[in-house]
Amino acid sequence: MDLLLNTLLAQLKQFPPARHYRVAYSGGCDSHVLLHALVAIQDQFPATTISALHVNHGLAEEADRWAAHCEQVAAGLGVAFQAVPVDGLGEAGESPEAAARQARYHVFAQQMAEGDGLLLAHHEDDQAETLLLQLFRGAGVRGLAAMPEHAVFAKGWLGRPLLGLSRQHLRDYAKAAGLNWIEDPGNQSPDFDRNFLRHDIIPDLLPRWPALTRTLARAARHQSAASRLLDEQAAADLQAAQGSRTGCLSMGVLNTLSRERQDNLLRYWIRQQGGSMPSSVQLQRVRNEVVSAREDAQPQVGWADSMVRRYRDDLYLVSAKSDQNKGEFLSWDLKMERYLADGRCLKLERRPGAGLKASLQGRTDVSVRFRKGGEVCRPLGRKQTHRLKTLWQEWRVPPWQRHKIPLIYVGEEIAQVVGYCICEPWQANADEAGLIITEQV
């Protein structure tokens, strides 16, 4: 027991401080050990509260009984308990394992408060299984790093403090402590890839390679170190390849890099912007069809909910979802913020001598519209009216973004192109109250 307690304490001291440790508690042996051990060393973290978070997938007949068992155990340990029911079936054609995992982590993220630490009971054997699964999927370095010991998550972070201990270490602790845990029959089914590895493949390899799980876990750590090094290189390349607009990549710089560095940078850039990861084939299409295209072309490659597009020398990552604002017409009295169909919000701030005339507040002919074609306006300081299309080109706004930019109308005249210009004659004079309109995503 001392080995596990000392390991847990040492690992927690390496993680960031947390006001609250939330233990992902299924009721199985591993998570029960983590919860019990954490309570045992609680005096080492007097400023941190502990709670158990149970996700009830509802897939087994005993699911509610398991939740009740978990609640009883948590009460006996003196920690707060929360059970959250989810639909664990997932979409048609989706892997049951992937659907369940996604549902769990969605719940975990929802429950996290600022600065919380989510603790997971994964151990060395789990890490070895994860590495093998990633190998069979043809994963790259980042995938072969398997499960990180620590990572930023939701409003806080997640940690796996028992990752350096074997499954047997946890079983020995559970027996020594007299713990009573749930055995999920689903964990025996060879229909699930991880169970197949655990029960049918790894046991046949252990007689030949007794240290197999430890060796595989060590290999995952090597891949994790290599992944961090690749990220450092990508971060430096991203800094050098900043495009003319925020979040874009410069094609000129990207094309000076080797193919391997291009791929590394593209993956890092997509990940940093929250896009879904492309497959190797999709990434090759980005290189061949977008990066290598002529400057006057406007190619695009999409996958899942993401799309890479090019405009002039800039590479953009955009959402592949259809535009929800198309054709939208919203009346607006300019007295309070206005939400658009896609969830964006137009915010108002009063400021003397800046923005639109505040005297427009309360008028019934003010509206929010979006580009249809043929619009004209006279930006503040210009001597003549310009076609909006010409201004878009001058401002280097990509064609696919132009119809998403809110236009503030007074009657049938454009008074403001949000984020770009105020139009004559609707600007607030120096001695007038003004309204600053900004867009918040």
Descriptive overview:
- The protein folds into 3 domains: 2-220, 3-Layer(aba) Sandwich (Rossmann fold), CATH 3.40.50; 241-319, Chorismate Mutase Domain, subunit A; 330-440, no CATH class.
- Helix content is 38%, strand content 20%.
- It is built from 14 helices and 21 strands.
- It has a 6-stranded mixed sheet, with helices on both faces. The protein has a 5-stranded antiparallel sheet with strand order 11-15-18-19-20, with no helix packed on it. Strands 7-10-9-8 form a 4-stranded antiparallel sheet.
- Helix 1 (2-14) crosses helix 2 (29-40), helix 5 packs across helix 9 (212-240) and helix 9 (212-240) crosses helix 11.
- The chain is elongated and about 85 Å long.
- This is tRNA(Ile)-lysidine synthetase.
Strand content: 15-25%
Structural class, by secondary structure, is alpha+beta
CATH homologous group name of the largest domain: HUPs
Q: What can be said about the biggest beta sheet? A: 6 strands, mixed
Give the CA-CA distance, first to last residue.
50 Å
- The CATH topology name of the largest domain reads Rossmann fold
Contiguous uncertain segments of 5+ residues: none
Please tell me what the overall shape is: elongated
Average residue pLDDT = 92
Helix content: 25-40%
Strand ordering within the main sheet:
3-2-1-4-6-5
The count of domains is 3
> What is the count of helical runs?
14
The CATH class of the largest domain, by name, is Alpha Beta
Q: At CATH's second level, what is the architecture of the largest domain?
A: 3-Layer(aba) Sandwich
Cα Rg: 28 Å
Number of strands: 21
GO cellular component, one term: cytoplasm
Subcellular location: Cytoplasm
Protein name: tRNA(Ile)-lysidine synthetase
Main location: cytoplasm
